[in-house]
Design goal:
By secondary structure, this protein is α/β, with parallel strands linked by helices. The protein is 49% helix and 7% strand.
């Protein structure tokens, strides 16, 4: 796995596009184990923390390959963006998930049967060899192949009959690419909640084939996957409107684990100084995995180093769960009344920033979030199913200025 830095991510992207992308369509579904990952990009941790931007993925792929040749990879990039945009417009899905995770974790204290089954699953003692191996791999590496994640979720829900929210929480705590939107909505998709009534059933023969016969849990998996149901309807909401950047005013720049490319944001002038903070532990009421914490901390530290060098200003890496007081004191000490940060999509950081913004306002400090043009262009098309967005990929690429025969163009951003 490449290191938690932008240079490592860009290096991996260049190598993948040159050496592996042409084989990606026919090889990407195979999980050969943690020592054989040459058939996938391994870029998801860097994209999740935006050490590498989605637009850069698309530009790198289409600079060297035609859209037809790179189609599967391009679609995967847009799948991720679809999930982000869909959840941005239905944030109550995230709030419902968070409330259920808290409730279910609390219920483990009183529900002995649930605790027994949950403990067996998370400790890798189910007797299902593939599942138990994936638990170990998840904890040791912070990563699972995408196909293994689908099998894992299906076994968790339909074979082990555990609440999907606790499985999603496990992933979000341990995955170094743990993303609120992709993770939550993928688990809901497997369970039959995202696309109502459509579930994903893990099959022994499928696992055997795509793990190169490393595993074959024949006779140990559920034979059916009845869709879960929910009575709640989640309303579609508008995306946030644009915010105005401060004119001729000093501002501080805040870096979070949601965006590790601060030097490419559309800022006016340069910040007076930079602060970086990590919120990985806020992913769950339970402790986050060591690998997830390490990667997020490394990504934020790398972004801080680049930002201070790029803007030639002082920087600080802070560790605090009380961002309201942290930012208030930081702004007051440095005489700035505006704090600018990259837009945080629905998730723990967005929750923290919402609460922090209210606290800052009481002290006369504005918190402004910058949303990248890529998100503003694509997210509005994620109101319904993915295939509505998929049909628009050629026109979206054109709008973003990405053509297979063109060279790289810098990503742009705008205020929201």
């Amino acid at each position: 796995m490449p290191g938690a830095s932008r240079s490592a991510g860009l290096g991996r992207l260049a190598a993948f596009v040159a050496q592996s992308l042409s084989h990606y369509p026919r090889a990407r579904n195979f999980d050969f184990g943690p020592q054989r990952r040459g058939n996938v990009s391994l870029l998801s941790p860097h994209v999740r923390h935006r050490l590498v931007l989605e637009q850069e993925l698309l530009e790198a792929a289409l600079q060297r390959h035609s859209l037809t040749a790179a189609n599967k990879f391009v679609q995967e990039v847009f799948w991720r963006t679809y999930f982000k945009g869909w959840l941005e417009q239905r944030p109550d899905v995230w709030l419902d998930y968070r409330a259920n995770v808290a409730r279910l974790i609390k219920s483990l204290d009183s529900d002995t049967d649930l605790l027994r089954r949950y403990s067996a699953a998370v400790s890798g003692k189910t007797g299902i060899d593939c599942f138990d191996a994936w638990i170990s791999e998840l904890e040791q590496t912070g990563y699972l192949h995408n196909h293994a994640r689908m099998w894992f979720a299906s076994i968790w829900i339909f074979t082990l009959r555990l609440p999907w929210q606790l499985g999603a929480d496990l992933f979000l705590r341990h995955l170094i690419d743990g993303d609120p939107a992709s993770n939550t909505l993928s688990w809901r998709w497997v369970a039959g909640l995202h696309t109502k009534g459509k579930t994903y059933l893990a099959l022994s023969k499928n696992i055997a084939r795509y793990t190169d016969n490393r595993f074959n849990p024949d006779g140990k998996l559920a034979s059916s996957a009845p869709a879960l149901v929910e009575s709640r309807v989640f309303p579609l909401r508008d995306l946030p409107l644009a915010q105005a950047l401060p004119h001729d005013e000093d501002y501080g720049l805040l870096i979070t684990e949601e965006d590790g490319c601060p030097e490419t944001l559309a800022l006016r002038g340069k910040p007076k100084l930079v602060l970086a903070a990590v919120a990985t532990q806020q992913r769950s009421p339970l402790p986050s995995g060591a690998r997830a914490r390490e990667f997020a901390a490394g990504a934020v530290a790398d972004a801080l180093t680049r930002a201070t060098q790029h803007f030639a200003v002082d920087g600080q890496l802070a560790e605090s769960e009380d961002w309201g007081n942290l930012l208030t004191e930081w702004a007051a000490q440095n005489n700035v009344s505006n704090i600018v940060t990259a837009y945080a999509p629905v998730g723990p950081v967005a929750e923290i920033l919402a609460a922090t913004s209210t606290h800052l306002q009481k002290h006369g400090i504005r918190l402004l979030q910058l949303r990248r043009t890529y998100d503003s262009v694509v997210w509005p098309h994620a109101r319904r199913g993915y295939f509505k967005l998929k049909d628009k990929i050629p026109s979206l690429l054109e709008t973003l200025g990405i053509e297979s025969e063109d060279g790289f163009q810098d990503s742009r951003s705008e205020a929201v």
